[in-house]
Design a protein that fits this description.
Blueprint lengths: L5 E6 L4 E8 L7 E2 L7 E3 L1 E5 L8 E4 H10 L2 H4 L2 E5 L9 H19 L12 E7 L5 H16 L2 E5 H12 L4 H6 L1 E6 L4 E7 L2 E8 L4 H15 L7 H28 L9 E6 L2 E6 L3 H9 L5 H7 L17 H10 L13 E5 L8 H9 L6 E3 L3 H27 L2 H45 L3 H18 L1 H30 L39 H7 L2 H23 L1 H7 L2 H5 L5 H13 L4 H10 L2 H29 L2 E2 L5 E2 L2 H20 L1 H7 L2
Parallel strand pairs: 1-8, 8-9, 10-15, 15-16
Antiparallel strand pairs: 1-2, 2-3, 2-4, 5-6, 5-7, 10-11, 11-12, 13-14, 17-18
Helix pairs in contact: 3-4, 5-13, 7-8, 11-12, 14-15, 14-16, 14-23, 14-24, 15-18, 16-24, 17-23, 18-19, 18-21, 18-23, 19-22
């Protein structure tokens, strides 16, 4: 398929539609097409009866509204004003004809809008938005009508994906946000649509086809009528007054409320707005926020709205037509889907609030309270009427650009992992060395005192060895963890720091706008109870000490390590002295054993055992000191200390590579080094995956 020059996004709404375009680029920017008011217009058409062919199409958008308003009753006999037809495309042939007429007129204007290329192959490819919850038939009809209207081969994309693409391209959302879950709340003029988007796809779309800004328009219509008793409005004119005049007044009221709230001031008491009805001007004077809240909490649709709602092809879903309804409570009910307030908050990390009616000052707080999310997690689209249309125009370019970037960045990942591995290995080498030195420095002075006592005052080496074992056991029980803990805590913290540093370098080098904290939360200070699996990176990287069981396992062998070293450095030197100095051998009573030493290892072991068993007294001690000088014995103990430290260092380091242990929950945890390396590789993989999050969401169930 030939790459298009660019894309046109159409947010084909029940109440209003928006048109945007985006030229194909590595850094795409969406702009509103120069039709309507900033690319937006009411979704309506004005037909000359019977309204079947393009020749019968008189006007669409604002022009249709203004022409209808300017007609008297006699002129309206031969025409038909149509709006709100989008929800009825499946059951109603008339709705399909109205939608075709609107899109045909829009296609004509798009082709004359001065874009850099034509619509069709080699030019602009059209993407039209559809609600997330509609069926395949509705989607197919929408695509066919748009194509028949002259928009070429049209692709339908769910509207929440348009909102996601828009905010992802701006950096308002990260790919990680979208993968973990973003709730898109589209509060439009005619409908209230909600969809949860995450790595499993567009999940759980829901909403209310009757709940939208249009009900608040009706609230203002009734408010105007109440302030102007005796005012008569025909049903035909009421449709346009509701759709046009009262919507404008509602938007002015909302904007004035928002401006006052931003400055922490009361709503202006001199607010008034005109409304054109039947060729005359009437006024809404001095409305207040308190009265607005009261009316919204006890709203009953006017006869015009009741007639419109009964024509929808989807159930009203709880809106009572002839009894007062609390619109605020209705919004909360739809958001929560019958759950308790805040009961859905664990399903998503961010909320995107978009749609032409989303800028009501009460809405952000209401959404946050209903869903149980803080205000800073509710993202307001700064141009809500244009967000979805712009996002649809961006959608393909963003996806394709991310696919290219994914492949480029994947090629750099092996080098990133190698650099990280080297840093981790160097830090764990230092950890093993400093920890071993700390243990030896704490333990060896007590052990060396035992050997010096034997050297100076006599006794058996077996007795010394038994006391050394007790010293090591006592150290392990009472001091070992406290000795190791500071080094373990430090290396845990440093490994997280190293991971953050390398991840930050990776993100910056590849111009990825996500922050390190998106993948390694700031609360993570250590590596604890490490387990593989799970969607979240931080769920198994929690604050705390970490699992020291493996370290203490290595420490438990300290007595064996030290005694083995002493056997080589001290006892072996005594054996050599006895073999080379006959008087010493005679004093120790090992002459016969020395004579049989050539018999092999068993004889040598027997000689060592005899020397260890011997109770050195004044005579044999003096004989020993004549051949093993004090300075030589001191040097041997120093060698023992250095060798024991080296062996313990190797044991600690081996534990970071191979050791496993049980977590507090009884699960087997991985050794430190493979665990941190695997986690970093997972994190980097998530970063790369998140670049293509639109593919994941679109491809999900």
């Amino acid at each position: 398929m030939t790459t298009p020059f660019g894309y046109i996004g159409i947010d084909f709404g029940t109440s209003n539609s928006h048109f945007a375009f985006c030229n194909h680029s590595d850094r795409p920017i969406a702009e509103s097409v120069g039709i309507g008011k900033g690319g937006s217009m009411p979704t309506c058409v004005l037909w000359k009866k019977p309204g079947e062919t393009a020749a019968d199409l008189l006007a669409y958008g604002e022009h249709a509204q203004s022409q209808w308003i300017g007609m008297d009753d006699d002129e309206r006999v031969g025409v038909r004003f149509a709006f709100g037809f989008k929800p009825d495309l499946v059951p109603s042939a008339r709705a399909r004809k109205d939608a075709w007429g609107f899109l045909t007129a829009a296609a004509s204007d798009l082709k004359q809008a001065g874009l850099a290329g034509p619509i069709g192959p080699g030019g602009y490819h059209v993407i039209i938005g559809v609600p997330a919850e509609i069926g395949a038939e509705h989607k197919a009809i929408t695509a066919r009508l748009a194509s028949d209207a002259g928009l070429g081969e049209v692709e339908c994309v769910e509207e929440p994906l348009g909102a996601l693409a828009y905010h992802l391209s701006r950096g308002d959302l990260s790919g990680r946000d979208a993968r973990r879950g973003v709730l898109v709340v589209d509060f439009g003029g005619g409908t209230f649509d909600v969809a949860l988007a995450n790595h499993r796809g567009l999940a759980e779309p829901w909403g209310d086809p009757s709940l939208g800004g249009r009900l608040f328009d009706d609230l203002f219509l009734q408010w105007v009528l109440d302030q102007n008793p005796g005012l008569e409005v025909s049903e035909e004119e009421a449709l346009v007054v509701w759709q046009n005049e009262c919507r404008r007044v509602k938007e002015d009221f909302s904007n004035a409320w928002a401006a006052a709230a931003k400055q922490d001031k009361p709503f202006p008491d001199d607010f008034k707005r005109p409304v054109e009805v039947g060729g005359r001007k009437v006024w809404l004077r001095k409305p207040t926020v308190e009265e607005f809240r009261h009316r919204a909490s006890r709203y009953t649709p006017s006869h015009v709205v009741r007639k419109y709602i009964r024509g929808l092809d989807q159930p009203v879903g709880g809106l009572v037509l002839d009894q007062p309804t609390d619109l605020f409570a209705r919004i909360r009910d739809v958001l929560c889907r019958g759950n308790t307030l805040g009961g859905m908050k664990d399903k998503f990390t961010r909320v995107v609030l978009t749609g032409g009616s989303s800028w009501w000052p009460f809405l952000k707080e209401l959404v946050g309270d209903a869903l149980g999310v803080p205000a800073d997690k509710v993202l307001m689209s700064q141009n809500p009427q244009a967000t979805i249309g712009s996002g649809l125009a961006l959608y393909r370019t963003v996806r394709e650009g991310n696919e290219r970037r994914q492949q480029e960045i994947k090629a750099r990942v092996p080098e990133v992992l190698r650099d990280f591995n080297r840093s981790v290995s160097a830090r764990l080498d230092r950890y093993a060395a400093t920890t071993a030195d700390a243990v030896i420095q704490a333990l060896m002075p007590r052990i060396e005192r035992e050997y010096w006592g034997w050297y100076d005052h006599g006794g058996s080496l077996n007795g010394v060895e038994a006391r050394v074992k007790l010293i090591c056991q006592d150290f392990e029980k009472t001091q070992g963890e406290a000795c190791v803990r500071p080094h373990w805590v430090a290396v845990n913290a440093d490994l997280i720091r190293i991971m953050r540093e390398h991840l930050g370098t990776f993100l910056r080098a590849n111009e990825i706008p996500s922050g390190v904290e998106d993948y390694i939360p700031t609360s993570v200070t250590s590596i604890a109870d490490w387990q593989s699996g799970g969607q979240g990176t931080g769920d198994k990287l929690i604050g705390g000490l970490g699992n020291m069981a493996g370290v203490l396992t290595a420490l438990s062998a300290i007595a064996l390590v030290i005694l083995a070293v002493i056997k080589v450095k001290v006892i072996a030197s005594i054996v050599v002295a006895a073999m080379t100095v006959p008087p010493l051998a005679a004093a120790l009573g090992v002459v016969a054993l020395i004579a049989s030493i050539a018999a092999g290892a068993a004889a040598k072991q027997a000689l060592e055992d005899a020397i260890k068993k011997h109770e050195f007294n004044a005579m044999t001690g003096r004989a020993l000191r004549l051949v093993l000088w004090r300075s030589s014995f001191e040097e041997k103990l120093k060698e023992c200390r250095a060798e024991a430290s080296a062996q313990l260092r190797a044991a600690f380091r081996k534990e970071t590579i191979e050791g496993t242990s049980l977590s507090a929950t009884g699960e087997v945890t991985r050794a430190l080094e493979p665990a941190i390396l695997a986690k970093f590789e997972q994190v980097v993989g998530e970063v790369v995956t998140d670049l293509g999050v639109l593919d994941q969401v679109r491809g999900g169930a």
